[in-house]
Write a structure and sequence with these properties.
Elements lengths: L2 H10 L7 E10 L5 E9 L5 E8 L3 H4 L24 H6 L3 E6 L17 H13 L3 E7 L4 H11 L17 H5 E2 L2 E2 L2 H7 L15 H5 L2 H12 L2 H4 L2 H8 L6 H6 L6 H4 L14 E6 L3 H13 L4 E6 L13 H12 L12 E5 L4 E5 L8 E8 L3 E3 L13 E5 L10 E5 L7 E15 L5 E9 L5 E10 L31 E14 L4 E7 L25 E6 L7 E7 L5
Parallel strand pairs: 3-4, 3-5, 8-9, 9-10
Antiparallel strand pairs: 1-2, 2-4, 6-7, 10-11, 12-13, 12-22, 14-21, 15-20, 16-19, 16-21, 16-22, 17-18, 17-20
């Protein structure tokens, strides 16, 4: 911590204002006349203050629990992932108005809910309303994590004049890739919206299916029929019922009916262009929740204005009600909204936590310029080695596993490969790709990849993961890099049973030092075990839709069909 940052931390530890004024149930008119409801919490001082807006769908009254409810850490049956608007008392005590507004169609706000695809125009209108109030000095920022982070970015895309900076943390900025990981349906967003796995539900004013409302009847029924032909959907009881009885079903019905990326997920006819964000932006995410981490990195790289990125230590997830790293949030906004020299822009732009040695450090670019891109090959006897195989498939036949559907077994099978214990510390920091040669005997399967740090006592630490539905293996070469294959997810390409296929699979970025004596392990499976203790790095109900095809998976790793990890190895410095 440099001197300027230390001085600022000492200053911020002393609250400026201990009293607050509260304006309950304020009414904000959106441009189409829809009334949005909010609460405003103000420093009880003379004059005007800058404001931080929390635009959230979980209910402004519910967010008030932050006033009296002690923060909970997972695992806890009292942990509620939807308490995300921030610590009002902390924010107000540091001289900011905290404005908590219910998203359109939720809580006490009128209109129809549009999930994370929309909200930008409403954020624009709310920001400008806040800036025009007699208690606001015209400087507005935003606060809140996860869904609220997505609303910050969606609002910034609309470029409201008085939105001076944002601080999105742990956000979901690509709606399709939030709901479908590598083309595989992820169930957690349903938990967050309907109240499963410890989360409170989104208090919708009305249940609306965009597909049912906008599609011609024939097209709507065609999509229903098509989805019911998918054995993964047909054999999942919840979704079988939902599709057979769609009346009264809302957002999750639309998710099921849109298994490919496109206008529904973009919220318009064109995908979002995050390069248009030019105000100061501070992105952040935790390691271990890879889709969130990679989105934060991608959005940081696209941002055109002043920017910072922090990649934090892995889960457990932030406590709820959300209150952590508020000192960083205030430091950011003191710089951009109050014109104080807090030193926030004096360091290199990227701050990352390195697992294994458990230290933070600063970097200037991503991927790191000093990266030594290294292939680790899947080899016989379940080894993972930097040297390729010298023999052909006749001498080195494939590994594999047979996975029956979980409707007839509780066993989830897999195959793993591990390095010998490292003779010295090895750092891996950056994006990763797995190039997998495989043969299956069905038209589709899931590829679920996990990586572990294994200590000499065989204790495993889950580091990162990757997913790819085999029928979504198509790659957009123009958008891909060797370490980051890009799958457009715009159609399914059924696999020809028995055909050799190379699957480029994106593994989410990590930063880890494998200590001397530790090993790196790669695991390949096609289903998830809901009782797997290693899923502790993920949110509640964070399972994917398991495949219901009985499938033989043959993993090739011979001379002519090399399967390998492309790893960002960082050279050692010093002695």
């Amino acid at each position: 911590m440099d001197t300027k940052e230390k001085d600022w931390h000492e200053l911020i530890s002393q609250p400026m204002h201990k009293k607050m004024k509260v304006l309950k149930d304020v009414s904000i008119r959106a441009r189409d006349g829809v009334r949005l409801a909010g609460n405003v919490y103000l420093p009880d001082v003379e004059g005007k203050s800058p404001a931080l807006l929390a635009y959230q769908p979980f209910g402004k009254k519910h967010e008030e629990m932050a006033f009296w409810f002690p923060p909970q850490t997972r695992p806890s049956h009292l942990w509620d992932g939807n308490l995300e608007a921030g610590d009002t008392r902390y924010v107000v005590a540091r001289g900011y108005a905290h404005v908590v507004v219910d998203v359109r169609g939720t809580g006490e706000s009128e209109g129809e809910f549009t999930d994370i695809m929309g909200g930008g125009e409403d954020v624009y209108d709310v920001v400008e309303w806040v800036a025009a109030q007699p208690w606001c000095d015209g400087n507005v920022g935003m606060i809140g994590i996860s869904f609220l982070a997505a609303m910050q970015v969606n609002g910034a895309l609309e470029q409201p004049p008085h939105l001076k900076a944002i601080f999105p943390e742990g956000g979901h900025y690509d709606a399709y890739r939030l709901h479908y990981h590598g083309g595989i349906l992820w169930l957690m967003p349903r938990a967050a919206s309907e109240g499963r796995g410890g989360d409170s539900a989104i208090p919708l004013r009305a249940v609306v299916s965009v597909m049912r409302k906008t599609l011609p009847k024939e097209e709507f029924e065609r999509r229903i029929k098509e989805r019911l032909q998918d054995p993964d959907i047909r054999n999942y009881p919840n979704y079988h019922q939902m599709l057979n009885y769609p009346a009264g079903k809302g957002m999750w019905l639309d998710v099921l009916l849109n298994p490919y990326d496109g206008p529904y997920w973009w919220g318009s006819e064109k995908p979002k262009d995050f390069r248009t964000i030019k105000i100061p932006v501070h992105y952040g995410a935790q390691w271990g929740r890879g889709w969130v981490t990679d989105e934060a990195i991608d959005r940081f790289l696209e941002a055109q204005g002043p920017k910072r990125l922090v990649l934090r230590r892995p889960p457990p997830m932030q406590e709820r009600p959300f209150h952590e790293f508020h000192d960083e949030i205030i430091r950011w906004y003191d710089h951009w909204l109050k014109s104080k020299d807090t030193g926030v822009m004096d360091t290199p732009p990227i701050k990352l936590f390195v697992q294994g040695i458990n230290e933070y450090r600063y970097e200037n670019e991503w991927p790191l310029a000093r990266t030594n891109w290294t292939k680790f090959y899947l080899r016989s006897r379940h080894r993972l080695l930097p040297e390729p195989e010298q023999f052909d498939a006749a001498s080195v036949p494939p590994d594999g596993f047979y996975q029956p559907p979980l409707s007839v077994t509780n066993r989830v099978l897999s195959v793993s490969y591990a390095t010998p214990p490292f003779e010295e510390d090895v750092e891996v920091t950056g994006p990763i790709a797995l190039y997998l040669h495989a043969v299956i005997d069905t038209e589709d399967t899931n590829w679920i990849i996990r990586m572990f740090d294994v200590d000499p006592q065989n204790r495993k630490v889950a580091l990162t993961s990757g997913w790819l539905k085999a029928s979504h293996r198509e790659v957009d070469e123009a958008k891909s890099k060797p370490w980051a294959p890009y799958h457009p997810h715009v159609r399914s390409l059924p696999v020809t049973p028995g055909e050799m296929v190379e699957y480029p699979i994106k593994i989410h970025a990590l930063s880890n030092v494998f200590r001397r004596g530790h090993s790196m392990e790669l695991e390949i499976r096609n289903n998830e075990d809901p009782f797997d203790p290693l899923l502790g790095i993920l949110p509640p109900d964070a399972f994917h839709l398991n495949t219901m095809r009985a499938t033989v998976h043959k993993i090739y790793r011979d001379r002519d069909h090399a399967s390998y990890l492309l790893l960002p190895v960082i050279p050692r410095t010093g002695g």
